[in-house]
Design a protein that fits this description.
β8 (189-194) and β9 form a beta hairpin. By secondary structure, this protein is an alpha+beta fold. The chain is globular. The protein folds into three domains: 11-205, Histidine kinase-like ATPase, C-terminal domain (Heat Shock Protein 90), CATH 3.30.565.10; 219-338, Ribosomal Protein S5, domain 2; 402-658, no CATH class. It contains 23 helices and 21 strands. Strands 1, 2, 3, 4, 5, 6, 7, 8 and 9 form a nine-stranded mixed beta sheet that branches. Bound molecules: adenosine-5'-diphosphate and magnesium ion. Residues 32, 35-36, 97, 101 line the site of magnesium ion.
Length: 671
């Protein structure tokens, strides 16, 4: 038998195979194109896709554009405007395509570039196949910047095409890439949309901040719980900046955004190392959110890694990782003890301040390690040692969250607000925006300051708590504060709630009947037959159900059962005793006719149901102290983060100053 003849492969075939290695999925190509736009100093980047980028992947920027005379060679391999000298290679081409991106794409897709530079009179459009122009560039209308369209990716590489995931999965990957670059480049405005659709999947404003973009893309529940991280090391020659979630926040799957020298990459070693730190702070099987931007001397990044392999290695990897671990640990610890709870073992006057502070820390009666402002002995509050709770010495209080959740609810697998929601909806309803600006404008600046910096002292009962701010001690009305908090969150997170799923759907008819039997309902014969009223309530709420589901994650099934409620803050489930009255009041107190009134009254009623209720007290107190934990660790921290107290809280009894500690001590000293 004759040996097979060895033939040299045709050049285009070689190129195609090579290109298929470089560009494996739409999101790889997109990543390269986003980087090109950023290199071209774009401040706006719009991505449009069809079928997850398989049919069309288009990116439009307002960058410098490409000069007409460069259009001919721009898609050839090893053409780049970014490095001129060979020496640059070692410092610049850390993991780049070195002028290969566009060339590679043109080998596996139909590529069209429309571009206009600042000094050109018109835009120029050119199409490419296998690195070459298909014809001379044509003049056309267009703004400054570049639009690159990649159509029918892998039309000529059947094997690659087959290896691809579904358009849905590719789209998710594309969205992931866009959202990550949007967080990292917060000054640049990014949008992602599907072709032919008006609404955007992702939209970030220009000149935004990293945290705002995290809020827009990953949702407020994580944005509220971020710790800033920054670290610089001259010896190891690296710099780190980032935002990581604190110990109050966790997700089912770790969200890790890593940029090394401004390129989106992955480092399993680094991720795992940080996750070990979190392991002692987070509940089992839950994970943090982390965004890290690491800058390393370029020559220290391993260049031997294939361009598409996002996984990177770098010199001194272990030492750098260890430093980062330490920084994360310090940050988590610091946050854990930020809840300052100053206590004093001795009456004042006996000791000068510094020793006293130390003594208190050593005796363990102070819950803090790191203090922002020095607190002098005369400013401290004396509290009863019996009020000391073990849980404040634990990073995660011993509270059986699962048990509590399971009583009435299970967190729904796919849309709990714990999960990152890359497709957070932007709400533009004027009514909602107006309601938000009403409470924003009506905020009492002094009270906001007090709430933001308050120290939680303890619960008096479910309705009242004690807080300290400065030298003043206040009795605060937890019920009214929490009601306002929920009201504001219902509007702020409008249309973006996770769901609390009732483990067994509750019949609205029965709930209404229970409510009507309560004295609180004020039902009288004149109101009509209870059964009729209950039926009316079912019909009314069912007719509103698509809207309630869409905006508030409140689902009512066809049989008239309530299935889910909005998940407003992590770890919080409203007291179910209030459910019947809530249902009744939805029918009687909500103005369903006028849009703004409707949202306002609905949010009010829902907040009323979610607030910490006075009557949580009687039997529950002894049975379990869960409400106390919730008030201290869920409600007050949430208020500290986002409650904007309305003006009237300063006049009514919501904040009652009961002592000015400086005066109090003067009194004591005379004794
Ligand atoms: P590289 O980015 O490594 O230079 P590419 O193949 O990605 O290689 O791009 C080739 C060249 O095309 C770039 O060097 C740049 O001059 C030009 N280019 C590509 N995309 C853009 C864009 N969006 N705006 C301006 N110039 C671009
Ligand atoms: Mg490039």
């Amino acid at each position: 038998m004759e040996p097979g003849k060895i033939r040299k492969l045709e050049e285009v075939v070689v190129n195609r195979i090579a290109a298929g290695e470089v560009v494996q999925r739409p999101c790889n190509a997109l990543k390269e194109m986003i980087e090109n736009s950023l290199d071209a100093k774009a401040t706006q980047i719009q991505v449009t896709v069809k079928q997850g980028g398989l049919k069309l992947l288009q990116i439009q920027d307002n960058g410098t554009g490409i000069r007409k005379e460069d259009l001919e060679i721009v898609c050839e391999r090893f053409t780049t405007s970014k490095l001129r000298e060979f020496e640059d290679l070692t410092s610049i081409a850390t993991y780049g395509f070195r002028g290969e991106a566009l060339a590679s794409i043109s080998h596996v897709a139909h590529l069209t570039i429309t571009t206009r530079t600042n000094d050109s009179k018109c835009a120029w459009k050119a199409s490419y196949v296998d690195s070459k122009l298909t014809g001379p560039p044509k003049p056309c209308a267009g703004n400054q910047g570049t639009q690159i369209s990649v159509e029918d990716l892998f039309y000529n590489v059947a094997t690659r095409r087959k290896a691809l995931k579904s358009p849905g999965e590719e789209h998710a990957k594309v969205a992931e890439v866009v959202s990550r670059y949007a967080v990292h480049n917060s000054k640049v405005s990014f949008t992602l949309k599907k072709q032919g659709e008006n609404s955007t999947d992702i939209r970030t404003p220009p000149n935004s901040t990293v945290v705002d973009n995290i809020r827009i893309i990953f949702g407020p529940s994580v944005a509220r719980e971020l710790l800033e991280l920054s670290l610089e090391d001259d010896k190891l020659k690296f710099k780190l900046n980032g935002h990581i979630s604190n110990a109050n926040y966790s997700v089912k799957k770790c969200v890790f955004l890593l940029f090394i020298n401004h390129r989106l990459v992955d480092s399993t070693a680094l991720r795992k190392a940080i996750e070990t730190v979190y392991a002692s702070y987070l509940p089992k099987n839950s994970h943090p959110f982390m965004y890290l931007s690491l800058e390393i001397a370029p020559q220290n990044v391993d260049v031997n890694v294939h361009p598409t392999k996002h996984e990177v290695h770098f010199l001194h990897e272990e030492s750098i990782i260890e430093k980062i671990q330490q920084a994360v640990e310090t940050r988590l610890l610091g946050c854990n003890s930020s809840r300052t709870f100053y206590t004093q073992a001795l009456l004042p006057g006996a000791n000068p301040a510094p020793e006293l502070v130390n003594e208190n820390e050593q005796s363990g009666s102070s819950g803090s390690g790191e203090k922002k402002d020095k607190i002098y002995a005369h400013q401290m509050v004396r509290t009863d040692s019996r009020d000391q709770k073990l849980d404040k010495f634990l990073s995660k209080p011993a509270r059986n969250k699962d048990e509590q959740m399971d009583e009435d609810f299970e967190e729904s697998g796919n849309s709990s607000s714990n999960d990152p929601k890359p497709e957070r909806r932007e709400i533009r309803l004027t009514s909602v925006l107006m309601l938000i600006s009403e409470f924003e404008n009506g905020c009492h600046a002094g009270l906001r300051e007090a709430v933001k910096n308050m120290t939680f002292v303890g619960c008096v009962n479910p309705q009242y708590a004690l807080i300290q701010h400065g030298n003043k001690l206040y009795l605060t009305n937890t019920s009214s504060l929490s009601e306002e908090l929920f009201y504001q969150l219902l509007l702020a997170d409008f249309g973006n709630f996770g769901v609390l799923k009732l483990s067994t759907p509750a019949s609205i008819n029965e709930l209404a009947l229970i409510a009507l039997d309560l004295e609180e309902s004020g039902w009288s014969e004149a109101d009509g037959n209870k059964e009729d009223l209950a039926n009316y309530i079912v019909t009314l709420l069912q007719s509103k159900s698509p809207m309630l589901d869409d905006y508030f994650s409140l689902k009512i099934d066809d049989d008239g059962n309530l299935c889910t409620l909005p998940y407003i803050i992590d770890d919080y489930v409203p007291a179910m005793e209030g459910l019947p009255m809530y249902i009744l009041r939805l029918a009687t107190e909500v103005d369903w006719d006028d849009e703004k009134e409707c949202f306002q009254t609905f949010c009010r009623e829902t907040a009323r149901f979610y607030r910490i209720q006075r009557n949580n007290e009687p039997n529950q107190v002894e049975a379990n102290d869960n409400w106390k934990w919730v008030v201290e660790h869920v409600i007050y921290p949430a208020m500290r983060k986002s409650l904007l107290p309305p003006q009237h809280f300063a006049q009514d009894t919501t904040f009652l100053q009961i002592a000015n500690l400086t005066d109090l001590y003067r009194v004591f000293e005379r004794c």
